[in-house]
Amino acid sequence: MRGRQEAAGRGGGGSQGLAWLFLLPSLAIFGLFIFWPLGRSVYLSMHGSDIFGGAGELVGLDNYRDLLTSAQFGKVLTVTALFTVLSVVPAVLGALAIVILLESRIRGTRFFRTSFALPFAFSAASASVVFAVIYNPAIGIANGVLGQFGVDRVNWLTDPAIALPALCLTTIWINLGYDVLVLSAGVGTIPDEVFEAARLDGATGLALARKITIPLLSPQLFFLVVVSTIHALQSFTQIHILTKGGPDRATTTLVYSIYSEAFAYGSSDFGAASAQAIVLLVIVLAGTALQFRLLERRVHYR
Amino acid sequence: MRTRALILAAVVSLSLTGCGGDDGDAGSTGGVPGRDVLDNAKEKVTIEFWHSMKGANADAINAAVADFSRELGNKIEVKPVYQGNYDDTIGKYKTAVQQKNTPALIQIYDIGTRFMIDSKQTVSVSDFVEKDGASVDDIEPNIASYYSVDGKLRSMPFNSSTPLLYMNKEAFDRAGLDVTKPPRTLEEIAEYAKKLTVKDATGKVVQYGFNAAIYGWLLEQLLATDGKEYCDNGNGRSALATKVQFDDPAAVEVARWWTDLVKGGYAANTGRKTDDAQAAFKTGTVAMHLESTSVLRGYVTAAKGKFTVATAPYPKLRASSSGGPIIGGASLWVNGQGHSALEQRAAWEFIKFVSTPAAQAKWHVGTGYVPVNKKALDEAVTKEWQAKYPQFTTAVDQLHALPPSVASAGCILGVMPQARKAAEDGLEQAIVGSKTPEQAMKDAAASMKAEIDRYNKSVG
Amino acid sequence: MRRLLVYVLLIILAVPVVFPLYYAMVGAVMGQADLTSYPPALVPSEVHLENLRGAFRTVPLGRQYLNSTLQTCVITLAQLLTSILAAYAFAFLPMRARALTFGLFLATLMVPWESIIIPNFLAIASWGLIRGPLTYVGLVLPFLASAFGTFLLRQAFLQFPAELHDAAVLDGAGHGRFLWRILVPLSRPSIAAVGVYVFLSAWNQYFWPLILIRDPQYQTLQIGLSQLNDAEAAEPGLILAGVSLSLLPTLAIVIFGQRYIVRGLTAGALR
Questions:
Q1: Picking from A99-103, A170-174, C162-166, which range would have the lowest pLDDT averaged per residue?
Q2: pLDDT tens digits, residue range B14-68?
Q3: Where are the strands (E) in B279-343, listed by range?
Q4: pLDDT tier at C267 (50, 70, 90 boundaries)?
Q5: Cβ contact (<8 Å) for B95 and A52?
Q6: I want to staple A128 with a disulfide (CB 3.0 to 4.6 A). Which of A109, A241, A272, B187 is the partner?
Q7: Contact C82/C144 with Cβ under 8 angstroms?
C-alpha cells in the first residue's frame, strides 16, 4: 500500500505496553477464532471420526488420499471452477457495461445508478428466496413468462444442465449491485479533465471507453475480479437455499461439499470435511496469488 | 397381556437370533427411576424436548405439550424445541452427545434407531414399562416391531406414518377416471399418469400425471411392498448390516419406471426437496403424488376450495408383490446419560401421556399420522373427524392390512441416513439421465460400502 | 439517436436487475390467484395484506428481526471498538514488531471462514455457547475483531498529521483523550464506512447461524427466510412478504447511505 512513512518514532508518548494493550482484543479474537482453528483444521483432517463426529484415531493423510482419488471430488472441483468463472466474469463485464453507459452524460443517470445498486440491499438469503419463487417449476413467473413465448416448462433447479447456470444467474444478480457501486466510485475518481481532453481529441462512445475509462478503471476491475473470485469460492447461501447441491451434485461446490460432509443429512464426518476445508484454503490462497501475478501486470495505476 | 407380548416378541424375533449381552442401554433396568422419584420431588423439573415437526404438525405438538401441562404441569415442564428436519436433529444430537448436553427427550426418525442404540445414551422404553409393571399392549404391533431391537422396545413410537398415493379428484374426473378405483401397481400408475397428463394447444404441459420427491424413503417403501430387504443380515436385525441392497433388480425397476415417466413427460421432476414436490400437488400441477400420511392435514387445508384430496393405499411394486410398506415416522427416546433420575422420569411421563388413546386421537386428526395406540381409533374425536374426512382412514386400514415381515420391519443401519441419501443420488442420476438406472443404483449401493464398514468398525 | 440507443441499452439492463426487487414487493401484497395465474400477473388485481400476517404465522419473523438486530449491533459496535484501538496502536504508538504484527492482521484476511468453520463450531459448542441465551454469545464471539476495519481505519488515522498528535499527547491530553475526543470525531466518515460494511456483512450472515443455532428462539432473520421458503413453497405470497419485510433496513442503507457503502467497499480498490 502506498501509505505514509511509518517511522518507528511516530507517536512520541506512551510505551510499548499501551500498543499491545490496544492490540490485545483483536489479537485474542484472531488467535482464538482464526489461527488456532487453522491448526485444528489440519489436526482434524488427519483423524478419523467416531460416530458422534469426534476426532477418532490418527489416519495421517488418508482423508486426503480418499479425497483426491475419488471421482466425486473431481466433480466437486470442476463444479467449483465452473461456478466461479460463470458467476464472476459476467457480473464484472455486466457492471462495466453499465458503468460505461452511465458515463454517457444523459439525463436520469442518478436514477439508473441507484436502480443498478438496488440488488445490494438483498442479502444472499433474501435474493435466493426470491429466485426460488421465480424459478418454481410449477407456479414460478420465469416459466410463466417463457410460456407466453411458447417455451416449454424449464426445470430451473432440477435439470442438471440448467441448475448451475440458474444458480450462477442468481449469484450474478446478487453481486451486480456491489460491482456497479465499486466501478462507479472508480469512475468518480477519474478527473473530468481527462474525459474532456479525450473528447476534444474526438474520442466518443466506445473509443472513449476503450482508451480512457477501461484503462483507468483497471485497479477497480482488478480488485473486483480478485474479491469476487474469493467470494464465489466461498459461496454457500444460494446453494443451500436453491439446490442443496443437486441435482445429481451438479451444484455441489467445495464449500457445499464441506457442509454436507460435516453438517447435513445427519452426517458429521469432521475428518473428511476438514481435509476438504484445507483444500479450500489452499485453493483460495493459490488463486489469489495467481491472480495477483497474472493481472497485476496489466493494471494501470495512476 | 402375555399373549400380546408374545406376538410382539414373535414379530421381532423373526429376524432375531441370539444377540449377546450388550444391549447398548445407558442404565440397567434396576436403575430405571420409578414414579416415586417424581412424587418425592420437591421442585418442578424442566426438560427439553427436541423435535422436527413444523407447520400443522408443530401446532399439534404444542397442543400436546399444553395438554400435558394441564395434567402434570405442577411437577413437570416440557419445553419443546424445533431443531429443523430429522437430519438436522440427529446431527445436532451428535454434537450434544459430545458436549454432554443432550435433551432429556428427543424425537428421532425411524432410520436413526440403530445409531441411537449404538450411542449408548438412552434408556429403553421397555425398561420403564417393566418398572411400572405396565404394558404396551395397546401399541400397534406393526409399529412397535420397527423400534424393537434385540427383544426390547427401545423407544416409543410417536408419529407413525405410512406412505399413501394422493390423488386430485377433480383431475381424475376430468380424465374420466375414478378415484375409488385407484392404480395399485407402478405399471397402473404409469397408465393413469398418461391419461392424467394434459397439454394445451401449443403442446405445453399444463398438468402432469404424477410426481414424487426424489426421497429415499419412498423407494424403501416400494421395496418393502415387494418383500425385498433393504440391507443384509435380515435388514440389520439379526446382526449389524454390512451392505445395502438397493442395487437389487427391484430397485432398478423402480428407477427405470420413474425415469421413463419423467422422460415421457408424464411426471414432473420436482427434485429432492419434499417441500417442492408437495407444492406441485398442492397447487394442482400434478394429479397423482406419493407422500407420507403426515402431510394429509396440510393438503386438506391447502386444497380447500380448489380441489378434493383423495387418498389410496401405497402402490405395490408389481401385481404379484405381497408385502406392504414399512412403518415410517419417528419415535421418542429418553436420554439417560447425563440426566437425573427425575429428568428421566419426567421424560417417560410425557411419553406415557402422548401415547394415551386421547392424546393419540388428537394427534392423528391434527396431523394425519397413524395413531400408535390402537384405542385412539375408538375415541369420539377420531370417529367424528374420519366421518368428515374419510381420506384419513386409508393409512390406518393400510397399517392393519400389513403382513408383518422382516422386509416391512425396515432396515436398521447405523448410517441409514447416509444410505438413504445414496439411494437418492442413484435415483436422481437415473431420472435426470446422467446414468442408466442399473448403473446408477449399482454405483449408489457400492458407494455406501466403505461408510458402513467404518461405522461397524467404530461401534465394534 | 445515440442517446436513444444508450437509453434502450440501459433499460434492457435495468429491467432484469430491478425485476426481482419489484416482484418481491408486489408479490408480497398479491393474492394467491394472481401469483399462480397464467399468463402471469405483474400487477396485483387487489392489494392483499393477509400475506404479511401469514408470514408471521409460519415463522416468528418479529423475534428473528430482534435477534438479527441484536447480533448485528453487537458485532458492529465491538468491531468498531477493537478496530479503532488496533488501528490507533498501528498508527501512533511505538511498538516493536509492528510490520510483523500488521502482517499477521492482514493474513487473517486470506483465510476463508468456511475453511475454519468446523473447529470454530466445535469450540463454541464445547464451551456451551449453543445453549439457551448463551447462543447470542456464540453467534457474535468469533466476529468481534476485524482486520479489514483495522486496515481501513489505520489508513484514515495515518492521514492525521503526526506532529499534531505528538503535540496533543505531550500537552497532556493523553492517548485516551486524544483518541476519543479528537481523532475519532475527525475520522467519522471512515468509521461510518467501516460501520456500514460490518453492519451489512453481519446482517447477511448465513452459514454460521445455520449450523450454530439450536433453539428457534434465537434464530436469525436470514435463516428464517430460508425456513419460510421451505415451509410455504406453495404460497409464494407469504415468502415474498417475509422477504420484503426483511429488506427494509438494508434498502434504507442502500438508498440513504450509499456514500458510506462506496467508501467502505472500495477502500481496497482505490489506491
A1: C162-166
A2: 333 333 334 444 444 457 888 888 888 888 999 999 999 987 888 899 999 999 9
A3: 286-292, 309-313, 328-335
A4: low
A5: yes
A6: A241
A7: yes
User: Which residues between 403 and 422 in chain B have a beta carbon less than 8 angstroms from any beta carbon of chain A?
Assistant: 414, 417-418, 420-421
Cell of C263: 467508501
Selection from A253, A278, A222 nearest residue A82 by Cα: A253
* C216·B81 Cβ contact <8 A: yes
pLDDT band at A28 (very low <50, low <70, confident <90, very high): very high
Closest Cα in chain C, distance from residue A161 (Å):
22
Select from A41, A52, A50, A47 the least CA-distant residue to A266: A52
Q: Which of A53, A56, A248 sits opposite B432 (nearest CB)?
A: A248
DSSP B324-338: -PPPEEEEEEEE-TT
Closest C-alpha among B291, B279, B283 to residue B368: B291
User: Partners for B (CB, 8 Å, 3+ pairs)?
Assistant: A, C
C139-154 residue pLDDT tens: 999 999 999 899 889 9
pLDDT tens, position by position, A54-78: 777 888 888 899 888 888 899 999 9
**How many CB atoms are closer than 10 A to CB C66?**
13
SS3 letters across chain C: CHHHHHHHHHHHHHHHHHHHHHHHHHHCCCCHHHHCCCCCCCCCCCCCCHHHHHHHHHCCHHHHHHHHHHHHHHHHHHHHHHHHHHHHHHHHCCCCCHHHHHHHHHHHCCCCHHHCHHHHHHHHHHCCCCCCCHHHHHHHHHHCCCHHHHHHHHHHHHCCCHHHHHHHHHHHHHHHHHHHHHHHHHCHHHHHHHHHHHHHHHHCCCHHHHHHCCCHHHCCHHHHHHHHHHHCCCCHHHHHHHHHHHHHHHHHHHHHCHHHHHHHHCCCCCC
Least confident of A8-22, A49-63, C19-33, C165-179: A8-22
User: What cell was used for B176?
Assistant: 374420466
Per-residue pLDDT at A33 exceeds 60: yes
Q: Are strands B286-292 and B205-212 parallel, antiparallel or unpaired?
A: parallel
> How far, in Å, CA of B208 to CA of B265, rounded?
8
- Pairing state between β B163-168 and B286-292: antiparallel
Can you tell me the ipTM of this complex?
0.89
Residues A64, B2: Cα–Cα separation, whole Å: 56
Which residues on A lie below 8 Å from B99 (Cβ)?
none
Q: Using CB atoms, pick whichever of B86, B91, B432 lies closest to residue A268.
A: B91
CA distances from A192 to A199, A204, B162, B198 (A): 11, 14, 72, 62
CA–CA distance from A193 to each of A206, B133, B395, C85, C271 (Å)? 18, 95, 79, 40, 20
